[in-house]
Structure to design on (407 residues):
């Protein structure tokens, strides 16, 4: 399995200027490639191939007075930007044909220097390296200070340098993990569990344990409102507005990092303690259009489930999703009698058939476990012949997780 390791970078003033120059050159080449494709489409001609674009937009452009400054950055960065444009068009056409899974994609858009996220990529051809002082040496940028939060298991072939909306820099590496080392890290266990996700409690386990929802966004709401109010009062285009925007972005980044940290710690703990996990496939997109939208986004259920998916695949665990229409809150986990729907304010109820008193959330978690085929405490009922869950794609968020992210 491939995982993405992200580390915080601390470039000095000169290196920030060099990185800004590299971001700008990569952005210009990407936009030139999109413009060339769009002009060819408008003229009714064939799309220019990647080799033709490389000769025209990089090799020849460096010799022209209008684009001579492209020679100030590594040529690998420019070539990778062309490759990104090629991939964007390939995904767009695959989405049109219906051969690509997921939501429909639009055509590639032009990038802006005001985009929240800027990135460049160096391959092995760029001859980047890790110095003896544990710094990251990048061509035409220099040796950048790195905050190593963990050890890289192997030497990566590529590195992506990212600048986020909060003005932070990160180095992102894609690493192939060792299955034997992963198996030794988390040996098999006989425990199984069902999880009921909610808002009052982030997760209620079939064992009866209730994990409170940290509500990171709600706790930071007062500070965010104050920062956004200050931003709204600044004149557009002024330096003070840029400073205020950066303050808002850093406040949001702090909330996002805290949420990711919580998700990573909880998902790792559940994967370590249980061989199989049952969870409900929630309609998060639909719930995010209700009056509970802010709380739903604050909980981050989709991100948490995706972490469970790739960690289960990595460590040989089984994650089973049950249908979202399964009546887990209406069915008695003791006798199986369906007692009908109940309003959300009803947190305890008594089964009309057997008289068992149920905690609503614990009962739902127990039913999730049963619906997933994990009724007992052992793995006799778990089908381990099915495919492992696929790892999630990189989403562009680069905080400080306790576990590396899936690529």
């Amino acid at each position: 399995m491939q995982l993405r390791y992200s580390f915080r970078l601390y470039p000095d003033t000169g290196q920030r200027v060099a990185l800004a120059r590299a971001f700008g050159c990569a952005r210009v080449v990407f936009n030139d490639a999109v413009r060339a494709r769009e002009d060819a489409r408008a003229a009714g001609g064939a799309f220019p191939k990647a080799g033709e674009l490389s000769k025209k937009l990089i090799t020849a452009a460096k010799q022209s007075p209008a684009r001579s400054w492209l020679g100030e950055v590594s040529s690998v960065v420019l070539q990778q930007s062309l490759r990104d444009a090629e991939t964007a068009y390939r995904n767009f056409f695959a989405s049109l044909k219906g051969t690509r899974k997921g939501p429909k994609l639009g055509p590639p858009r032009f990038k802006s220097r005001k985009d929240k996220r800027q990135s460049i990529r160096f391959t092995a051809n760029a001859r980047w390296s890790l110095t003896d002082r544990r710094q990251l040496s990048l061509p035409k940028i220099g040796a950048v200070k790195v905050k190593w939060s963990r050890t890289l298991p192997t030497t990566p072939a590529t590195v992506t340098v990212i600048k986020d909306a909060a003005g932070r820099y990160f180095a992102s590496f894609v690493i192939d993990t060792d299955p034997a080392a992963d198996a030794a890290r988390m040996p098999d266990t006989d425990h199984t569990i069902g999880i009921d996700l909610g808002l009052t409690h982030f997760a209620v386990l079939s064992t009866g344990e209730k994990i409170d929802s940290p509500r990171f966004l709600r706790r930071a709401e007062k500070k965010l409102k104050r920062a956004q109010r200050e931003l709204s009062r600044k004149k557009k285009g002024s330096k003070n507005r840029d400073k205020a925007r950066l303050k808002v972005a850093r406040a949001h980044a702090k909330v996002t990092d805290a949420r990711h940290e919580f998700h990573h710690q909880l998902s790792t703990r559940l994967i370590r303690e249980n061989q199989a996990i049952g969870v409900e496939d929630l309609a998060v997109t639909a719930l995010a259009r209700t009056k509970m939208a802010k709380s739903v986004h604050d909980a981050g259920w989709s991100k948490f489930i995706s972490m469970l998916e790739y960690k289960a695949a990595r460590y040989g665990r089984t994650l089973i999703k049950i249908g979202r229409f399964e009546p887990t809150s209406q069915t008695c986990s003791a006798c199986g009698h369906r007692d009908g729907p109940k309003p959300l304010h009803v947190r305890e109820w008594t089964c009309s058939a057997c008289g068992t008193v149920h905690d609503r959330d614990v009962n739902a978690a127990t039913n999730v476990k049963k619906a997933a085929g994990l009724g007992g405490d052992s793995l006799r009922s778990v089908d381990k012949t099915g495919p492992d869950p696929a790892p999630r794609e990189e989403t562009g968020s680069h905080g400080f997780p306790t576990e590396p992210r899936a690529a």
